[in-house]
Structures are given as C-alpha cells and as structure tokens.
Amino acid sequence: MTEYQPKRPPRAHQREAELAMEGREFFALFMAMRTGKTKMVVDEFGRLWSRGEADDLLVIAPAGVYRTWPEAMGLDLDPSLEEVLDIFLWSASGSKTARGQEELASFIAPRRRGDPPRVLLINMEALSAVERAQRLAVEFVSQRRAYVAVDESTTSKEPRSKRTKSLVQKIAPRARVRRILSGLPTPQSPLDIYSQFNFLQPEKPLGFSSFVSFRSRYAITRRQQMGARWIDLVVGYRFQDELAERIRDHSYRVTLEDCYDLPESTYQVREVSLTEEQGRLYREMRDRAVAVLETEERVSASLVITQLLRMHQILSGVAVDEAGKLHAIPEHRTQELLSLLEEYDGKAVIWCAYDASVRGVSQALEKKYGEGSVARFWGGNPSTREEEEARFKTFSRCRFMVATAAAGGRGRTWDAASLTVYHSNTHNLEHRSQSEERVKGVGKVQPALYVDMVSPGTVDEKILKALRGKMDLASLLTGDAWRSWVV
After folding, report:
1. Which end of the chain has fewer CB within 10 Å, C or N?
2. Is it the case that residue 227 has pLDDT exceeding 50?
3. The whole model's pTM is what?
4. At 327, phi and psi to the nearest 5?
5. Closest Cα to residue 25, out of 214, 179, 220?
6. What is the pLDDT of residues 148-163, one digit of tens each?
7. CA distances (Å), 181 to each of 29, 37, 62, 199, 441, in order?
8. Domains (range + CATH), the chain
C-alpha cells in the first residue's frame, strides 16, 4: 500500500514527537492527557505496517483505560488499515464463555507476515492475576513483528510486581518496537522511572544493571528498625538533573498547557466540621492508636501509616474494626457536599477515597436530584461503568460523576464538568494529578474549579498540603517526621 495517511494531520507538538521517535526501537511518550498519546501510537504503527516493518499491535493499559482505545483509534486510523484491522478486546469474563473462547481462538490463530494486522487490547491488572491473559499476550507478541505500547506505564512502577516481571521478562524481549505512555512519569518518586525503562531496555535500563544500584545512585536512604527487621528507608533524592538527562534522549515530554491556551484553574477549600462521634473517635485514634465504636467494636492500628489511614477514614465517615468489618459513622461531609452543589447548576465530578463513600454520596445525590442524576466509576461497577460514563457525557439529566481515582483517575474525558469536588483525597500524588486532568478540555473556555472538603485541624489539611506541594506522603513519614502528622 501507499504511505500511511491518518485521518487527522498531526499538530506541531505531535509532529515533534513523531520525529523524536522515528526509527527508535524503544521510546517514552510522557504526554499529558489529550495531547495525543494514542494518536502517536496509532499513526506510528500505521506507518510501520504500511512499510512492512510491523504486523501486530499490543496495547496494555489499566482497567479503567484500555476499553477507550477502540474509539480513540477510530479517530485516526487510515481507512485502508481500518478496513483490514482485526481488533480484540480482552475480557476475563468473556474468555470463559463458549463464544468468547471461539472468538479468541480465531483471533490468536497463527498468522504469517503479510496477513491482515491485529490489535490486542488487554488490561494491566490481568497480567498480574489472570494466567490466561499473560499467556495470550506472550503468544501474541511471539507470532510476528509486534509493536507493544504500555499506556499509563506508571502502573507498572514496582520492580517486584507480577505485572512488571511479565512485561520485562516475557513480553519486552519478544517485541519489535516498545513504547511507554504516561502523563506523569514519576508520580511518587524519581525511582518510579526504573521499572518503566526496564521494559524499554530489559538488559540495562538507564545504564544500571539492577534496581538496587539505581536506587543507590539516586536515593538517600536511612537504616531503620521495623520490628525485628532492619530496612533501608528512602528519605530523599539526589542527582535528579543527571537522571533527567539520561531520560531526555529516549523520551518526549509535553503538557496540555504547552499545547493549548487553557483557562486558569481555581482551587478552594470547603471546611467540614466533625460530628461528636467523629471527633471522639479521631482523638482516640490520634492519641492512642485505638478507638472504641459505640457498638463497642475496637478500631486499632499498629503502624503509623495504618494509624493515619484509620484517622482519615474516620474523617470520611468510615471505620474498620479489628475484625475487618466496616462501620458507618455519622458525618457532615456529604451534607456539606449537597449544600455546595446547591450553588452550582452544571455537571460535577466528585472524587471519593473509599468505596463506602461512593455508595453514600451516590445515594444522597440520587435522593435529592432524582433517579438517573448520578453516574459512578469505581471498583464496584466494572460491568456497568462504561455505560454510566456514557450517560454522564451524553444526558443533561445525569449531572454527577462519583468516582474513585484508582478506577477513574486515568484516561477518561469528563470535560462536560467544570466543577471537581474531592469529598476525600487519597494520599497518592498520582491519583490527585491524574484526577485533576479529567475535567480539562481542549478549546474549553470555562475555568476548572477544584474544591477540597477539609476538616480543620486534622490530617485532612496535611494531606492536602502535601498533594498541593507535589510531595509523596510515604517519603514524608520517614524518620521522626511522622510525629507532626499524628499529634
């Protein structure tokens, strides 16, 4: 065929990215949401296919993202490629049915060079938990010249995780072309970059033979006793300019603000008082790491990080006792959210740190605004959340998206909303950074408003300060620093 011709021509920054990765076996696209990461992969695969240099495309992305790829690909695919392309979307449940097994068998049947190209879309979590998915991915990239793209690559930043080992040891060596895609390459610490580049350069990522040697170079550690063990805790970082220089030759970085004139965002805090029971339980957990519920079950914590989690849960109206049972605590936060929304007549995205909060907030909103006014995107509705998202984006009656950042924080476009409310924050910087991006949109003229619900004088304030300052909570709690968080 003739040279690949995408439906949409590249923008200036996209053309720069194309030139930067031309002819590279491995490359990192550190491009913010809606700057064109998907387009870069689709167009490059199309060009390589048209030249006879690639046959198949494997896309690995988080569960909340990978289902968006078919629609996104359709925006850019050359019609001649789109016409012959065979796309298969992995589903653990679908692969168990007779029809699903038949479709999978047909898709993965061995093909020769010159046969029609294929795209396999698979969620990152399946590489850790589903043996069939891992075998499928390995077999797919082993058959022909495969282009492998890992979207939201920070989800494989832990060197010892099953998903990272699968990527590095089984998939990367068999791939013809390797790409990682992320808007925020180091969300928690500079050490996050190692595993991502270990996929790109499986033998010696960034010039280091192991994560231990990499960490020794760029992390400052302190020996500390944890129970009967001594461990090396990371207390700071060094030589970050050197690390940035090592990455620069193998990556392209762009933010949404670099590409478009976006309206300035506004941040506000909405103070929330504690109920009498919340105040008592919070003080008991803060002072003694043990709190007794009115039902006489005990909530306790043996580690500082667990103590902080329990304190934060109490602020959100949730308590988990020593038996693991969940208890609802009277709270004012949800009522304060309803009061806030009375002053706003558009669509809003509401982020919750806990599943129990998603349920409670959704019920309160539907009770006030009626059935169909709420869509949810969280771990409890994987089979319906795509449909609920579509309702939120399409129907004016569906005004509220209630979500957890772990499920909906990546790869979603919810720019129909201009208000984002954090009913509760997680301590995860990546969750915060990614979730803020959901309501931003190219060509959007209305500024985004972010409202954090905070109980004054509590750990709420310290978590928000850390997130706003782009700081990692885990790093802040090393040594004696934890004392300032729980006193």
Report:
1. C
2. yes
3. 0.70
4. -130, 135
5. 179
6. 999 989 888 888 899 9
7. 5, 7, 12, 12, 19
8. 12-259 (3.40.50.10810), 266-486 (3.40.50.300)
